[in-house]
Amino acid sequence: MSASVYAIPSITVRQRLPLPYLSVPGEAAHDCKQPVYAPGHRPLALPSEADIIHAIHTGEGLRIVYQPQYDLHSRRIVSAEALLRWRHPRYGEVAPAVLIPMVNRLGLHLPLFDLVVREVIDVLHYLRRHGAEVPLAVNASIDTVCEPGMAEQLAARMWDACLPTRLLKVEVTEDLPVLDELCLSACLNTLKAKGFTLSLDDFGAGSATFNVLSKMPFDEVKIDGAYIRDMENNTQSHAIIATLIALAQRLNLKLVAEGIENEMQLAALLGIGCRVGQGYALARPLERADFIQRQLAKPVAMTVKAI
Q1: Of 5-19, 173-187, 222-236, 274-288, which has the strongest mean pLDDT?
Q2: How confident is the model over 36-82, as pLDDT tens digits?
Q3: C-alpha angle 183/161/108, rounded to 5°?
């Protein structure tokens, strides 16, 4: 089997994603929901379609950063989410809220997914060779998940790298509702049968989420960061989060809180039973070298008092 799932130039991850990487502010929960331009202002100049095609097929300007997910009690990293970053030579840092919709419109979601998976497998392999293991999540649209043969080829790539499939988490990111629930269910069940962990992003963000959750074999759900950021000033958001946590526990699902920005939110989440989270209060997205160094270093536990 080919080393690549989809037809892109046969160059290594290291060639396409050179080190050292440059740091970029922001995480998925923030970046992907930013408006392309502020109300009352002229739209920003955007990269062309040709720019995006060139970047994805060469890897120029693209890199992956890693948003750690922490056990909120011990403050130890238990997982991480791989996030794409693009530095354009003319426009500088291009927000995912700009890049991803253009990628989907151009039908480039598969080669982009391939690029991210290559890098993530490389990091997983490096960590395992040095005695460290941590699951890493890759974002995948529903169209990507439902691509014929996706589960088989993804599993083959993990096995070729001598990695257990449990170390790669597939995080479904596309907005609901789902047009073909039967197809999605079949593809997710195939991924799960291969040993991959399945995560549902933005849990509770839409009414259709609950319908899909009841029918799909997800292992994990992620609370929409908007609820977390609003919980200090909105008692309803606090109640919604508590309800979602209780529901996830009843369904035997792991739950991750996104977009945690301060210690007050951390303590409040601990107080209502949330165990895992990610956000600026814990760590900003880390460059590859920094993430690897942190994983290979001896962990130091910290605690936060629940309220």
Answers
A1: 274-288
A2: 333 443 445 678 889 999 999 888 999 999 999 999 999 999 999 99
A3: 45
* First-residue to last-residue Cα distance in the chain: 53
Q: CA-CA distance, 290 to 67, in Å (whole number)?
A: 11
The CA distance from 121 to 288, in Å, is 12
Distance CA 154, CA 198 (A): 13
Cα–Cα nearest to 142, from 117, 170, 162: 170
Query: Cβ distance 291 to 68 under 8 Å?
Result: yes
3-state secondary structure of 240: helix
Bin 112: left if φ > 0, else alpha if -120 < ψ < 50, else beta.
alpha
Query: How many other C-beta atoms lie within 10 A of the C-beta of residue 30?
Result: 19
49's tokens: 């379609």
Q: What is the DSSP letter of 270?
A: H
Q: Which amino acid is at 32?
A: C
In total, the chain counts a number of residues equal to: 307
Q: Would you say 217 and 252 are in contact if contact means Cβ atoms under 8 Å apart?
A: no
- β 197-203/254-257 pair status: unpaired
Secondary structure class of 66 (helix, strand, coil): strand
pLDDT tens per residue, range 38-47: 344 344 567 8
Query: What beta strand segments (E) does the chain contain?
Result: 62-71, 77-88, 92-94, 136-140, 168-172, 197-203, 220-223, 254-257, 276-277
Q: What is the pLDDT of residues 190-245, one digit of tens each?
A: 999 999 999 998 876 665 577 778 889 999 999 988 889 888 888 888 898 999 89
Distance CA 210, CA 148 (A): 26
pTM greater than the 0.85 cutoff: no
